[in-house]
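I have been asked to look over a protein record a colleague put together. Alongside the sequence sits a line of tokens, each denoting a local backbone shape. Please read both lines and tell me whether the tokens look consistent with the sequence. Take the sequence as given and treat only the tokens as open to question. I have pasted the whole thing underneath without changing anything:
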Amino acid sequence: MSSRLGGRALVVCDAALRQALNLGYNYIQPEHLLLALISQEDSVAARALIEAGVHPADLRKAVLKVLRDDLVQQRETLEA
């Protein structure tokens, strides 16, 4: 199968999928893409965030909290 994505985009998509699966999701959300982008320290996205005063470690903590809260809410909804 051919891909329209370039090498770096494929790396980020693969990293986003791994983030999603490791966190208990079976699909990729924008948050997983963000986590993947900031994990690539030499990426344009990571550098832009740093230049804007956003620290990747702090952003990662905040995104993980949102995702964990989301999973809790999903489980509570299924159990109701």
In short: The CA atoms of residues 3 and 39 lie 23 Å apart.
